[in-house]
Amino acid sequence: MELGDHFFRRESGRLVAALTHLFGVHNLALAEDVVQDAFCRALEVWPFRGVPENPSAWLMTTAKRRAIDVLRRERTARTFAPEYGRLLESEWTMVPLVDAHFGAAIGDDLLRLMFSCCHPRLSEEAQVALVLHVLCGFSVHEVAAAFLASPAATQKRIVRAKKVLAGSRRLFDLADEDFIARLSAVHRAVYLLFNEGYHGASTESAIRVELCQEALHLAAVLVEHPLTSTPATLALAALMCFHSARLPARVDGSGHLTSLFDQDRSQWDRHLITEGMQLLDRSATGLNVTEYHIEAAIASLHTCARSMEETEWARIVNLYDTLMVLRPSPVVALNRAIAIAQYEGAERGLDAIDAIEDRGRLTTYPFYFAALGDMELRRERRDAARFHFRTALALARSPAERMFLERRIAACDADERVCLARQNGE
Amino acid sequence: MAQFVYLYRSGARSTEWSQSPQQAQEAMQRWMAWLKDLTEKGHVKDPGHPLERSGKLVTGRARTVIDGPFAEAKDVVGGYTLLEAADLAQATALAKDCPIFELADGTVEVRPVMSMG
User: What is the spatial distance between Cα A338 and Cα A373, in angstroms, rounded to a whole number?
Assistant: First the structure.
C-alpha cells in the first residue's frame, strides 16, 4: 500500500475533529495528544509489520482505543463533550458511544471544526494559522515557515486563537443561524490560505505549493458536503483550480518567477483546468453572483486562451467592471487597468491607473510599479519604465520577486539596445 | 551467511519524530525505505516486531514482579530485526544507515546469533 505524500496530514484533521467532538473543544490539546500518539504508533509499527490494508481505519481504531483510555483516566478530573454529558461517565455507555461516534460521519466533524476555527473573534490571519495548525496538521514551526513569521510569534498567535476556540466548548453547529455568515468567513480563510501560497512572501516553492494544495483540499471538503456545496463554494474551488493549474509554469526552467505574459502555457495542468471548468459550470446556479464567480470567470478566460494575444481581453475588462462593483479595491482596479492596457493599449491602461481613486494605497505594492513599468516600456518610454521597475525592486518582498524585477530592468536595457541597433542600421 | 539480531534502543518514544504529522510520516518512510533496501539485498530474515515500552519485570529468586520502569529509561529495546550478513563487520556496517540515529539517544545493538556448529 502506497501512502500519499501528505497522508498523515490529511488524516490529522479528520482525527482531531472526531476527537474534539468527543472530548469537547476545550480539550483540543488532549485530542492533539491522542492523534500524535496514533501517528507515533504507526511510525513504530508500520515499518516492521507493513502498512495496513486500510491505513485510515487503522489510525482511527488506534485513536479510538487511546481515546477510551483517556476518557477512563480523566473522566473524574475533566468534563468532556457537553452534548454527551453523563453518557461518558459510565463504563456501560461510554464504550458503545465512542464506537458509534467513530463509526459516524467524521466528515461532519471536520467541517464543524473548520467552521469553529473561523471564529468571528479571531482576525483572518489568526483563523488561517489555526486552520493550518489544527485541520491541516502543520506544526507551529511549519506554520511559521509558511508565513515567514517567527516561531515564537506564531506560537503566541496560535495559543491565543486556541483559547478563543476553547471558549465555545462545542464544535460549531452546522444548523446554527450564523451558518451562512460563518461559511463566508470559511471561504475567505481558505482563499487567504491559497493566496498566501500563490502570491505570498515565502520563497521556498515547496511550501507555497503545499499551501495551495491544503487550500484545494479544504475546498474539496466543502464541495463534497451537501450543506456547504453552495454556488460560492463551487466558484471558489473553480478559481483555485484555475490558479493552481498555472503553478507549474510560474517558475521557469532556471527557477525564475515568470509573469502570465511569459509563461509556457503547455505546462499548465490540463486536469486542473478541466476540473475548474466543471466546478464553474456547477457554480452557475442561484441568483447570487459572488466575487469568486467573477474571479473564477476571469481566471477561466486566462487559462482557456492559447496565448496572450488570443485572450478575450474585452470580456476580462467587463468582468473586472463587475468585480469593482461587488468588491472594489485598489488591487482589483489595478488588474482592471492591466487588462485595459492589453485590450486598448498602454496609454489607456495608464489612464485607468490614473483614475484609481485610492491609488495611494498601492504605493507599497511592488506590482503596482511593475505594472506602470510594463506600460511605459510598451510605449517605449524606457527611462520611465526603468524608474518604476527600480521603485518596485525596492519594495520586493522576496528574492524571487527581486530577481523577477531585476530581469524587467534588464529587459529595458535590452530593448534600448535593440532600438539603437535598429536606428544605427537605418 | 551468518545470522544477527539488531536490537533498536532509544530513550523517550519517537516523539522527536512526530512534532507534526508530516515529520512523522517522513520518518516512517525513511524507516520503510531502509528496511526495504535491506530486504531487497537479501539481508532480512525476519523484519521483527516493535515492542511496547511498558511491561513487567520478573526478578530474583522470589520472582518479584515489578512494573517495568521502561518508559523513563534511556535504553529501552523498542524492537528487533533478524538478519543475515557475511560477518559481524558487514552486519555492523549495514546498521549505520538506520534512521534511529536521527534520535539523540538512538542505538542499534548488533548481536551475532550463536551458531550450532
Answer: 11
Locate B92 and state its grid cell.
Answer: 555492523
Residue A129 CB neighbour total at 10 angstroms: 27
CB B58 within 8 A of CB B89: no
Q: Give residue-wise pLDDT tens across range B75-114.
A: 888 999 999 999 999 999 999 999 999 988 899 999 999 9
**B5 close to A (CB below 8 A):** no
d(CA A228, CA A235): 12
> What ipTM was reported for this prediction?
0.92
- Give the best residue of B8, B14, B25, B97 to mutate against chain A (max A CB count within 10 A): B25
Closest approach of A201 to chain B, Cα-based (Å):
22
Task: Write the single-letter amino acid at A395.
Answer: L
Query: A48–B79: do the CB atoms touch at under 8 Å?
Result: yes
Asked if the Cβ–Cβ distance from B28 to A42 is below 8 Å, we say yes
What the block records as the C-alpha cell of B78 is 523498542
Q: How far is it, in rounded angstroms, from Cα A307 to Cα A304?
A: 9
> Using CB atoms and an 8 Å cut-off, which of residues 66-105 of chain B contact chain A?
78-79, 81
CA A283 to chain centre: 19
**DSSP states of A339-360:** HHHHHH-HHHHHHHHHT-TTGG
A138 and B48: CB-CB below 8 Å?
no
C-alpha cell at A125: 490571519
DSSP category for residue B75: S
What backbone torsions phi and psi does residue B9 show, to the nearest 5 degrees?
-125, 145
- What is the tens place of the pLDDT at every residue in A211-241? 899 999 999 999 999 999 999 999 999 999 9
Interface test with B, best of A5, A12, A39, A214 (most B CBs within 10 A): A39
Contact A139 B19 (CB under 8 A): yes
Can you tell me which residue has the cell 494559522?
A129
The C-alpha cell at B67 is 512494573
- Quick one: chain B helix, strand, coil %, rounded to 5? 35, 30, 35
All three cell numbers of A48: 516492521
Name the DSSP class of A118: T
Torsion angle of the four alpha carbons B37, B43, B45, B46, in this order, in degrees rounded to the nearest 10: -30
Indicate the pTM of the whole model. 0.85
